[in-house]
Amino acid sequence: MGLSIKDRKLLQIAIPVSVLVVGFFTFLAQKFNLLDDPLRFLGAIFCVTSSYQLVVTASKNGMFKASKEVSYYGEWAIVTGCTSGIGLSFAYILAHKRMNLFLISRSEAKLEALKSELNDKFPAVQVNFLVHDFSEGCPESFLKVLNEGFEALKPGSIGLLINNVGVANYVPDRFHAFAVNEVERMINVNIKSTVHLTHSVLPFMLENRKGAIINVSSACGTHATPMLAVYSATKAFVTQFSTSIAYEYEKQGIDVLAITPYYFMSSYFKAKEPTLGIPHSSKVANGALKQLGRTKKAFPYWFHATQRVLFGFHPDWPQRLMWSMEQNKKRSEKKKST
């Protein structure tokens, strides 16, 4: 059986790179007499292989690729959970880029106000909206109205879907302390909304043979997060779901990206002003858009990526996180009692 075109291309890259690595290592061995010292020899092997792996990893994560402008994908962007936090930042950034907006949120009053603000600041941008509370799930009646709304748009114009709507427990607690309806609410908002919106929009993107989906996950979904067990599990689902379908549809011209930020300024994490570790939501949104077409999963803010690497060196990070969450719970209870 002959080699596929993809395998041939990989060989064309792998062979010269391997020759360069071997040649470079031979040069080092002769220059520094590494063969006479086993420890120096092993150290040189480690340095060369680590450098090679770093370059390969960077390449896989899109560091050497150019990002795509959102306008490339289409004229309309769909944004859920758009009246505050990162969803609101996405809406303003996309309007600034002259993308028309199809907004979905639970508050009609807030959607009306946002539409009015966007129309005043960006008169050339069309804004449609649909009122829905995702904590109720995605019943057939909602999906029918949703598809009718999509079909009413210009054929082939849906370019971007941002599944941002999400919910978390304000106060960390052990799993047994949560009521069943609270658990169901998180599953409905964080998982079902993402799955159903993605399922509804994909046929339109496939017909156009291009499109992009950004699913807002969380760094909590990349490691064990005690006392946020359900929330972190729902976000782990979002990340796995996103990266899996990213491979399914990349050859059809559809880019899927899961972003995994830590804390940023939002209705859930309020701060007086942005800090290095807690940026404004606009930085996270801008970072996410810059990663489109470059990778399938990303920390959209550089310091969050650094945090995740540093946490990985901790011998028992989840145990340390457990202690931190317990302290957060005590502070919340004390604040509530005063």
Descriptive report:
The protein has 338 residues and is α/β, with parallel strands linked by helices. The chain folds into 2 domains: 8-61; 70-310, NAD(P)-binding Rossmann-like Domain (Rossmann fold, 3-Layer(aba) Sandwich). Helices cover 54% and strands 11% of the residues. The chain contains 10 helices and 7 strands. It has helices at residues 5-31, 38-60, 85-96, 108-121, 140-151, 180-208, 229-249, 281-291, 302-312, 317-337, and strands at residues 76-80, 100-105, 127-131, 158-163, 211-216, 254-259, 297-298. α1 packs antiparallel against α2 (38-60), α5 (140-151) packs parallel to α6 and α6 runs parallel beside α7. The chain is globular and about 75 Å long. The termini are far apart.
SSE diagram, text form:
Blueprint: H1 5-31, H2 38-60, E1 76-80, H3 85-96, E2 100-105, H4 108-121, E3 127-131, H5 140-151, E4 158-163, H6 180-208, E5 211-216, H7 229-249, E6 254-259, H8 281-291, E7 297-298, H9 302-312, H10 317-337
Parallel strand pairs: 1-2, 1-4, 2-3, 4-5, 5-6, 6-7
Helix pairs in contact: 1-2, 3-8, 5-6, 6-7
